[in-house]
Every structure is written in C-alpha cells, then in structure tokens.
Amino acid sequence: MLAAIGVASVDDLLTAVPADARRPALGLPPGMSEAEVQAHLEELAARNRPAGAGPFFLGGPVQRRYIPAAVPVLALRGEFLTAYTPYQPEVSQGTLQAVFEYQSLMAELLAMDVVNSSMYEGSTAMAEAAFMAVRATGRKKVVVAADVFAQYRQTLATYARGPDLEVVTAPASQLAAAAAGAACVIVQYPNAFGGLIDVRGTADLAHAAGALCVVVTEPHACALLEPPGALGADIVVGEGQPLGIPMSFGGPHLGIIACREPLVRQLPGRIVGQTADANGTRGFVNTLQTREQHIRREKATSNICTNEALAAIMAATYLALLGPEGLRAAARVGVQRAHELARRLAALPGCSVAPDTSTPMDWGIPHFFDRFLLLTPLGDGLREALLAEDILAGEPTRGHYTHVADGVLVQCTEMTTPAEMDALVAAVQRIASREPVATG
C-alpha cells in the first residue's frame, strides 16, 4: 500500500503530527503482564477521591441524587442494555414502550405537549432548542439570560458559529429590550443561582416581540414548582441526569427537550408513538424521525445520531418508582436543607448568600430553590480553601457570570446530610476568620 501511494514508511504519513507526540511515554515499564497492568491501574484509580467520600455540595446540571436499587436492576436488563436503534418495531416493542413511557412521564412533569426520546445532555438540548426557534421564526438572533448555566451558554455559542447566529446575552432586567427581532428568549428556572424567575412574564415579553420562550429547567424543581409548560413556555429543555442516572464523571447523560404541539416537526431526534396493529393490539413505533439518517438532509432538523435511550429508560424507571409524591419528597428535602444551610452561613461574620433581597445584592428575586451563591471576603478563592479541607463546593462564578460578585455556588439535595452541613459551616467559619496572607 505504501508503494502504491509513493510513501516510504508509515512515519512519513504522520509528518503533520509532532515527532514527540507519535509515541508518547505512557509511564509503564515494558513487558508488564495483564495482571500487572491491572494492578497498576487499580493503584492509580485508588488515588481518586470518590464524590461521596466527604462533604459534597457540587450541583447545577449534574447532581448527587439517591438512586433506588431497583433502577439499575430494571433498566440494565439485557433486553434494554443490548437493544440498538429500534428500526423494526415488531422486534423492538419493549424498548419502544419504555421510551414511550419516558416521553409520557416527562410530558406530564413539564406540562408540555410533546417530549422527544432524548438528546445528548442538557446543554446541547438548549442549543437545539435555539435552532428550533430559528427554523420556526425565520430569525437568526437568539437572546439568552445571563443567569443561565455558563456551560449551556458556552455550548450555544459553539453551535451558533456554523449557521452564523447572533447570540445576545442580557441580564434579566434587559431581556425585554433585547427581545426585539429575536427568534427566542432563553431563561432558566430555577436559574444558575437557584433564583425563581418570572417565567410567565418572560414568556409574555417574548411573545410580544414575536419570539418563542425557551426555558431551561430541572426535573426535581418541576415536582414542587409550577412547571414551565403551565407558565407559557414554548420549548423546555434540561438535564435528566438527576433522574436515577449516575454522575459518571460527566456522562453519558440525558438531554430533555419538549415543545408545544405546533412545533413538533421542528424537534430533533425521534418520537415514539402508540398505535394499533391490524388486529387492534396496542403497539409502539417510531412516529417521527427528523434526523439525517432517515430523511433528506435539507429536511432534517438535526444530525444527532444517538437518543440516549438507555439513559431515558433509567429516567423512566426512576420516575415510575418514586411517583409524584416520592419526587416531591426528594426535592423538598433538598430545598429545606439548602435554606437551613444558607441561613447558618449568612449568620457568619463576613458571609452572605444570594439571591436574597435582604442583602446588598438585590436581583429582584426573593427566593431560591435548592442552591445559592455563597459570598465571602475570599471570593471564589473559597472553593480552593474548602478543597484543602476535603469539602467539595460548587463552581466559582469568576469568569462565568460577570454580572454577580465572585463567590461559590452551593447545592443541596436529599443526599446532603446534617453532618456535611455542619462540616461546611465550621470550615467556612475557620477559613473566613483567618488573617489574610501578606503578599508582595
């Protein structure tokens, strides 16, 4: 083959790759047996700190939630685990019905007409929602609130480069002015700081400008709060990982996307529908598949080629096991512990939390859900100080949310224990009381 193409060696094919990168040192001595390699890798893995090994307050799209033991037992059955894309419904009824149940449960939770059979994860679902709005309105401007998750806004910016969309980021107070000529207005409920925004008011201002209202939300929040669909949202997106899916180092997870019925043909991915065969027996089929694999490229809504069906089945199993009351109970515990923790931290000298109208930082948001922004004299340096004490706090705001003070996000769930809360309060009190280190 080399002779046929006139190349002397395989290395000559790789000249574009730097020489020192072609055979990188792996840190392994030569001649190790399989057993020795496994032992070495296990030793390396043991240096990692599992998420549950100490006080844990990370959150946002990916959350530490309790996963009932029955979820993996049921969702990881061989019939689901080995199933590929259900092209032939006559041999895929189990997978199709499970995905149909996921869609039905999520539609009820979000109060939306249609839910597809899932996206990659929440941030790409938000970007796909923006594309839906662009196709539906013919406009190329997208307005996104500044208090939407930073990762989601970064993904939107990446997606927007291809079709050359204009992405405008605006504080909540300026959304009305920015909405003119926009395809959609994107807000988050609860927002990145846990604040409960006025979704209905945002939907009204978006519709008045001829735009769609896209809402980023969280499943557990919809169990306690009025869901986005009841507040006028046209498209709802979010991350489904909290629904019985392990954190798994960031994936694979589950992107939620739902819409009003008039927008159904703009949905990416696929929709499983219920029907009846010639004998009147209930059955399930892929009702709508708008991806390039199935239709002409110019008519496709997306090139997404994976619908995260296994993750969707895990989410459906979780929702069915907990039921409405169980989901509300899990959400309620997280909210209660977050508010108790915020109260205790705000009582410490030099500390405050937001959103809270009693603090100098008044965003017009009087309440928060199950996370908040912790503000101390250390700013976002608090996160590193807490890590030194084996306490995992959330992401810092510096560089991600320019309209708020430097601080650290703190999230609580039903997995947050009183002992963890005590440890965080004690650590913040110690850290905040230390004398600053002289520099220069």
Overview of this protein structure:
The chain is of the alpha/beta class. The chain has two domains: 53-64 and 323-433, Aspartate Aminotransferase, domain 1, CATH 3.90.1150.10; 70-317, Aspartate Aminotransferase, domain 2. Helix content is 36%, strand content 14%. α10 links the parallel β4 and β5 (212-217). Mean pLDDT is 89; it is low at 357-366.
Summarize this structure briefly.
With 440 residues, this protein is of the alpha/beta class.
Q: Write the CATH fold name of the largest domain.
A: Aspartate Aminotransferase, domain 2
The CATH top-level class label of the largest domain? Alpha Beta
SSE pattern: HHHHHHEHEHEHEHEHEEEEHEEHEH
Shape-level CATH architecture of the largest domain: 3-Layer(aba) Sandwich
CATH-wise, what's the superfamily of the largest domain?
A: Type I PLP-dependent aspartate aminotransferase-like (Major domain)
Helix content: 25-40%
Shape: globular
- Oligomeric grouping of the chains: single chain
Distance between the termini: 63 Å
Q: How would you write the strand order of the largest sheet? A: 1-7-6-5-4-2-3
Compute the gyration radius: what is it?
A: 24 Å
Enumerate the spans where pLDDT stays under 50 for 5 or more consecutive residues. 357-366
Count of separate DSSP helical elements:
14
Q: Beta-sheet strand percentage?
A: 5-15%
What structural class should be given to the helix and strand makeup? alpha/beta
Beta strands, count: 12
Major sheet size, sense and barrel closure: 7 strands, mixed
Mean pLDDT: 89
Number of folding domains?
A: 2
